[in-house]
Amino acid sequence: MYYFIICIFSFLLTAILAVTGLAPGPRLWPAAVLVNNKLYIIGGLPNNDSFYLDVSKNFNVSDVASMPWTDISTGAPRKDSISACIGGMNNDSIFVIGNKPSASFQPLVSQFDTTKQVWSNVTAGGAPPVDRYYISCASFGKGLIAIFSGAYVTGNDNNDLWLFNSLSLSWIKSNATTAPAARSGYRAITLPDDNILYIGGSYNFSITSLTPMNILPLYNTKNDSWSNITTSGQTPPSRMFFSAVLTPNKRILIFGGVNDASLSYYNDLWILDVSTYQWSAGNITNPSLGPSNLYDHTAAVVGNYMFVCFGTNSQNYPTPTNSSSKIYLLDISKNDSYQWVTDFSLYPQTTTTTTATTTSTPTSTPTPLSTSSQSAASKINTSLYLIIGIFIEALFLATFG
Ligand SMILES: *[C@@H]1O[C@H](CO)[C@@H](O)[C@H](O)[C@H]1NC(C)=O
Ligand SMILES: *[C@@H]1O[C@H](CO)[C@@H](O)[C@H](O)[C@H]1NC(C)=O
Ligand SMILES: *[C@@H]1O[C@H](CO)[C@@H](O)[C@H](O)[C@H]1NC(C)=O
Ligand SMILES: *[C@@H]1O[C@H](CO)[C@@H](O)[C@H](O)[C@H]1NC(C)=O
Ligand SMILES: *[C@@H]1O[C@H](CO)[C@@H](O)[C@H](O)[C@H]1NC(C)=O
Ligand SMILES: *[C@@H]1O[C@H](CO)[C@@H](O)[C@H](O)[C@H]1NC(C)=O
Ligand SMILES: *[C@@H]1O[C@H](CO)[C@@H](O)[C@H](O)[C@H]1NC(C)=O
Ligand SMILES: *[C@@H]1O[C@H](CO)[C@@H](O)[C@H](O)[C@H]1NC(C)=O
Ligand SMILES: *[C@@H]1O[C@H](CO)[C@@H](O)[C@H](O)[C@H]1NC(C)=O
Ligand SMILES: *[C@@H]1O[C@H](CO)[C@@H](O)[C@H](O)[C@H]1NC(C)=O
Ligand SMILES: *[C@@H]1O[C@H](CO)[C@@H](O)[C@H](O)[C@H]1NC(C)=O
Ligand SMILES: *[C@@H]1O[C@H](CO)[C@@H](O)[C@H](O)[C@H]1NC(C)=O
After folding, report:
1. Phi and psi for 389 in degrees, rounded to 5?
2. What range does the record give for the signal peptide (predicted)?
3. Domain span holding position 301
4. Neighbours of 308 (CB within 10 A)
5. CATH number for the domain including 218?
6. So what's the pLDDT on residue 207?
7. Is the pLDDT of residue 18 over 50?
8. Ligand 4 pocket residue status of 48, Cβ below 6 Å
9. Ligand nearest to the CA of 355
10. Residues 351-389: pLDDT tens digits?
11. How large is the average pLDDT for residues 106-122?
12. Cα 141 from Cα 222, distance rounded (Å)
């Protein structure tokens, strides 16, 4: 009799797990990227597993475990302080770039084919860059991904820019001579004209000196050259380990971060209008519903919302003791008053452009009607478990009832 009860419980439990999936645990420095209605969360510290969130569904972010997550950790890179960008033939692969010393036995680049839902380790041709972390990649052109500087596993950070061709899987180095000083913990955003803007960060990870926020390096992807953008408006305080996204209406939003020199921790939102390069302070109508301070997090735009995910609120830089599993949703549909909300829905949504912190390429338009083979398969699994569960229960009742 106990055997049957255990059977029923285990089948029902499996069925419940198949429905809800396992939610990502708390983490610092994961990467986030949106492809075809799936928000991918890759790696992190201390949890380094990977997931996607099905954003074609409605959910409530106040209960992360109830959100439609799918684990994609099999074969995935196991690391943090990474960056992820879209590439591949049909913009349907995710390239995860970066290695800390603790992860340098892993390849510098991993690929996730979102169509086949499989990971592969990339052995890149060309002369690959030295392993590095605290970088922010940026996709542009036909399958190209740029990385700049970062914290080297070998020390002696340099100001080198590298271009990864995600179609041929090979690297080339920039020949530009006027590259900005070495930096890490910055964010790169691909602008609508396909050039790349670099925001924030600290000059040397080991030296507490932050880059200015009113002179921003711009990499011209067409002629392999650098220039400086001088911004107007009120300049945000310098920071690193913040998040940055590009919205469909051509604004860069940055959120949170830390100033390692003054040990200031931020939960502020700033807006950079990329047609005028004017900064302004973002208005959040209900700041108390957002994080008290946040850094080492990641962000992405999905429909009318900026997802602000994971990270830490610890006042204990550089060894934060609180890592977060929280997801905050900022409704960015109204230009001059943003608001923290808990309920997510992609609808009504006709067109959207998407961005992730670590990338910035406006990518795929969410196609609300598409269903993934993975979720269809998990439905088959779920129904299978339910049927087995009901069968066992019927058997139990027939025998003992
Ligand atoms: C989402 O969660 C919040 C906080 O628990 C709650 O106030 C709100 O009603 C929930 N929304 C839905 C649609 O359940
Ligand atoms: C990639 O390499 C790492 C480290 O050797 C390994 O753990 C992982 O399973 C590999 N992934 C694939 C898809 O082969
Ligand atoms: C991928 O997306 C980029 C930027 O949105 C676009 O310029 C490029 O043409 C796309 N590539 C393919 C192969 O669709
Ligand atoms: C990934 O997480 C596992 C489980 O916590 C841990 O044993 C492993 O060392 C981590 N890998 C890296 C490279 O941090
Ligand atoms: C950063 O570190 C490198 C190598 O250690 C050094 O050459 C460079 O001057 C440093 N830059 C700054 C701005 O401190
Ligand atoms: C830099 O110059 C080399 C040699 O001419 C060339 O092969 C490479 O494509 C150039 N890199 C870029 C980013 O243009
Ligand atoms: C690259 O193009 C930009 C914009 O067209 C121009 O201002 C700049 O001088 C060019 N740089 C080089 C090195 O050709
Ligand atoms: C950009 O400005 C920095 C100072 O913030 C300067 O060192 C650098 O040479 C400038 N770069 C270019 C390409 O003008
Ligand atoms: C961790 O988070 C809690 C709750 O927000 C906060 O009270 C505490 O100060 C944080 N710990 C550190 C070391 O910052
Ligand atoms: C919102 O801001 C963008 C860029 O700043 C502007 O182009 C657009 O017209 C604004 N929309 C509204 C409804 O104010
Ligand atoms: C913030 O809100 C105030 C009051 O609604 C408005 O006057 C101001 O323009 C807003 N600021 C921004 C950056 O939208
Ligand atoms: C059912 O779930 C298991 C474990 O989660 C998975 O390995 C298997 O591929 C799934 N089957 C289908 C048809 O999706």
Report:
1. -60, -45
2. 1-18
3. 2-350
4. 29
5. 2.120.10.80
6. 76
7. no
8. yes
9. 3
10. 444 444 443 333 443 333 333 333 333 444 444 555 555
11. 97
12. 9
> What was the pLDDT predicted at 104?
82
Of 300, 301, 295, give the one whose Cα is nearest residue 324: 295
Task: Count the domains in the chain.
Answer: 1
Which residues contact residue 398 at a Cβ distance below 8 angstroms, ignoring those fewer than 6 apart? none
Residue nearest to atom 2 of ligand 1 (CA): 62
* Dist CA 119 CA 71 (whole Å): 12
Flag whether 97 is in a domain.
yes
- Report the separation in Å between the CA atom of 330 and the middle of ligand 1, taken as the mean of its atom positions: 15
Instruction: Look at ligand 3, atom 13, and give the residue with the nearest C-alpha.
Output: 90
User: Does the global pTM surpass 0.70?
Assistant: yes
Cα 111–Cα 112–Cα 115 angle in degrees, nearest 5: 135
- What is the rounded radius of gyration, in angstroms, for the C-alpha atoms of the chain? 22
Ligand 8, residue 228: give the atom nearest the CA.
Answer: 1
Over residues 269-314, the pLDDT tens digits come to 999 999 999 999 999 999 999 999 999 999 999 999 999 999 999 9
Flag whether 235 is in a domain. yes
d(C-alpha 100, C-alpha 44), whole Å: 12
Distances (CA, A) of 81 to 6, 9, 155, 179, 337: 42, 40, 16, 23, 32
The answer on pLDDT for 191 being more than 80 is yes
Q: How far apart are CA 266 and CA 241, in angstroms?
A: 10
DSSP state of 211: P
Position 229 in a domain: yes
Name the closest-CA residue to atom 8, ligand 9.
Answer: 314
Query: How far is the centre of ligand 11, averaged over its atoms, from the C-alpha of 287 (Å)?
Result: 15
What type of residue sits at position 142? K
pLDDT at 12: 53
Position in ligand 1 atom list of the atom nearest CA 60: 1
- Pair of tokens at residue 248: 């469909």
Residues counted in the chain: 401
Residue 374 falls inside a structural domain: no
pLDDT computed for residue 237 by the predictor: 98
Residue type at 192 in one-letter notation:
P
pLDDT in tens, 122-154: 999 888 999 999 999 999 999 999 999 999 999
- Which residues are bridge partners to 306 per DSSP? 301, 330
Q: What is the DSSP letter of 214?
A: S
Q: Whose CA is nearest to atom 5 of ligand 6?
A: 175
For residue 79 and ligand 4, the question of a CB distance below 6 A is answered with yes
